[in-house]
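I have been asked to look over a protein record a colleague put together. Thanks in advance; the entry in question is below.
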Amino acid sequence: MKRAFFRLLFALAIVAGGVGWFFRAELRNWWQQIGQPVLVTGKLPARPDPERYKVLKDEVERWRLDLGKRYRAAGTSEKEEILDEAAVFLQTALPDLMSCWLGTPWDFNGTSETPGDGKIACGYFVATVLRDAGFKVDRYKLARQPSQNILRTFLPRDELSLRVGRPYEEYAGELRGMDSGIRIVGLDTHVGFIVTRPDGFRFVHSSGSRPWCVVDEEEAGADVLRRSNYRVQGSLTANRDVVRKWLLGERFKVKGS
C-alpha cells in the first residue's frame, strides 16, 4: 500500500512536470499540501527513515528509467521538454531523499549507506544521496575528494560561484535571489547541499558541529555556512548536461581520482 501511494505521488509529479517548470512554487506547494514529507527544521533533529528511503530510491530509479526511455524516443523539441520535467523531478526527489537522513549521526570517518545505520561524514552524505538518486558515480572516490573536486565532477568551472571572505548576510542575500535548484556547496573543510526555493534556501548537511548529525537548516540557523570563509557552489539541476546524463544513466568521472 505504501509503495502504491509513493508511485501515485511520483506519477502525479511527473505528469505535472511540463507545466511545473514554469510554476515550480505552485508545484512545491501542491506537493506539501497532499501530505508528502518534506525537509523539516527545528532544534531537535528528525529521526532517520530508512524504510521510506528505500521506497524513494526505488521510485526515483523507476522514473529515471521511464524518463530516459521517453527521451531516447523523442524528437528534438520534445527532448527539451523532458529535460525540464527531469529537472523539476530532481528538485523534489533529492530533498525528499535528504530528509530521510535527518538525525543520522556524523563522524569524520562515517561511511553509512543507510539512514540511521551507523554514522556518516559530510562527503559521504553528499555522495550517497547522489548515488541513490541515480547519479552514476563512484561513491567512495567522490566522498573522499576536496569539495571543489566534488563540484567539478558534475559542473564546469565557469558554472561555479566562488566567494571568499564575503559577509554571511551578503552571501545569504545572494542565495535568496537564485533560481530554485539543488546545489552542492563546498566550505573551508566541509561540503553539503543548498536547496534554493522562492521562499529562501535550506542548508542540508552532515554536521561536524552541534548537534553532530545530518541536519536541515534555514538561513538564520546555518552556523557552519555562516562561519566559513570559503564558499563555492553550483547548481546540479540548472545544468542541462548533468540532467541529461542522470536521465540516461551516463557515468560521471570523479575529478581528482
